[in-house]
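Chapter review. Work through the record for BUB1 mitotic checkpoint serine/threonine kinase before attempting the end-of-chapter questions.
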Amino acid sequence: MAEAASELLLMVPLPSFYRLYYLYNHWIMRTATYFFIFLNLSLAVFEEPAVYPLPFLATSLVEVLCLLVFFGRLTHFAKITPRNVFWKDTKNICIMVAILLSLTDLAIYGALRIYNIKSIRWSRIARPIFLINFAESRQIRRAFRSIRNTLPEITYVFLLFMFSLLMFSLMALKLFGERNLQTAEGLPYFRNYLEIVFDLYVLVTTANSPDVMMPAFDFSSWYALFFIAFVIVNTYIFMSLFLAVVYNNYKKHLKNEIRKLAYMKHRKMIEAFNLLKEEEGAQPVVREARWKQLVKLVAPDISNSHRELLLRISDDEQKGFIDKKSFVQLADLLNIQVITLKIRSHPLGQWMPRVYKSAVSQFLRSMVRHRGFVWTYDAIILINAIFIALDEETPYISYAEWVFLALYIIEILLKVYTYEPRVFFGKNQFWNWFDTLIIFAALTATILNTTLRSTTKYNSQQILDIVFILRVLRLIRIVDSIQRFRVIMNTLINIVPTMLTFGGLTLVVYCIFAIIGMELFHGKIQFFPVNSNAPYALECGNPALKDSLFARGKYCKNNFNNFASSFIVLMELTVVNQWHDILCGGRPAKLYFIAFHIVMVIIIVNIFVSFILEAFFVEYSLEKTPLKGSDEQLLDNMESAEHDLEGEVGTKTQPRGLVFKIASKRYRTVDALLQRMFEAEIPPEDEGPSFEEILNLSPTAAGPSHLTSERAV
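Structure tokens for BUB1 mitotic checkpoint serine/threonine kinase:
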């Protein structure tokens, strides 16, 4: 919604343009685009080598359909974008090139297939381009820009790290190479320089510790000092240095991106005001009728009452027009999530007013509203946790489960009795829904399991597993009762959208490496059942793996024979534990796995950790020192207007009506929070830098004081 508001400068009297613009940004069109992007990526599951094989004709027709949709979406975008802007945009060129390459590769592969000539689908590696470069994926593009901007600094640290690794490898060759030591498998120990480099690189990840040290340590305890020094320098110092460099550059470039967005939005709102303004005396303003038309155009989904609330805030003195300062804040008002509540009396108050309003009923409801009621049930949950840990077969423990279930059901019924049901089960009442669903699901599963055990000899382990899981899930309820836990949970909820961005980033990297891995290593390893009599079953179908750690560890299912298996192997490599055992093959395989480790673990995981650090620093700093200035004033004005309208429609003389509530004073994403920090420093009357100056802003340029202070870092 904020994006639509910040694009107000596009308001030109062209009805066809409006239709195309809103059609392009409609949620159905966006959802359809994502559907075809992921459909195109998922074709790798059905193409050779396939998890679920489909005929080549079927997969090729689906791919052509996806490419046609992408081309149509790109054409649609060209219709609502100035021609000179469209052709200067790199992402549009990338999409067109990817479509052309995919069609060319598909035609060549199909033609060669007709003549039974084996070839590879080299264009499949380009499929993630569609996920990155469509307009809907701007967050993923920003993440890739962060990687690109961080690479120069990382490169210097990586070169220094490699120098250290090579130096330690050379020392290891001189120290141990002539000692005729052997590994536990009877292989030569540290006699080949390249093998030493690889083993010590693995040691940096701690995956082969202490195994790699033991032959030298057994020979002389003093040699342990070499490995201790290596781990301190390379694992603890250099890996921490990688995180420090990534975090520092990520933070710097993130704030530069956010500053550009803040200036861009402010500039566009000023230009939109200049397009719509009229003169009221000596003051330029936007008339109320035109303002309403504008809000209805950019936010067609909000209700009329919500629109009236926004007008009350923007024109608090009821002058019939909106000044420049209030107009510039329109995008921020639209970005505040407002809940519209209908004031209703409790149904029991209408059906049984004498009983519901009696002294006993009022005492019962006041007891449920009291904080002591929450504390009592927190204590019950903790006692329940002790019983869950005890032996289920003990009769008293089994009976106690029914007692706890009864107590939880009584709690739900008392709350529904006290609070209006439609409010209690509102769409924003997550914990109420969670409690109710968990309790009644546990009740249903417990009754079903007890019935089956008492009437038949049937004993379903699956039902028992569900019952145990539901019992444990009840303990999560206590999270909402402790303030510090709530802060952490709120932070996690706020960073979920950006976590999804890094999920998309990981998906892109996984897809590229999975496709490369399938082309390089497909068929080299086979999985056989435990009792298989097939030749080389114990060697994973490859005689070269005889007596290897890979075969003896029964890692045969870790292969690149299809897309799903490739993803699992890459996930195991991301965790890095035992990744050197999963690795099998010659030097090309080692280079492949090291490249994945550098890209995924050293760069992307560190960027993800950097984001988590920044998010928690910002959240915790705001928890102690909330944001001041225009942002706080905006929320106060919203609350004042809410109370004004509540007085009109929520008084005792008129119990039915509408009340508006702010869903949360916290921002839904860290990006939005940082953007508001920058905007708080921009005077509403200041038009700010030009578009060209905004695009050329340097990360080293001075920023608002909020972000250069210790609070924001």
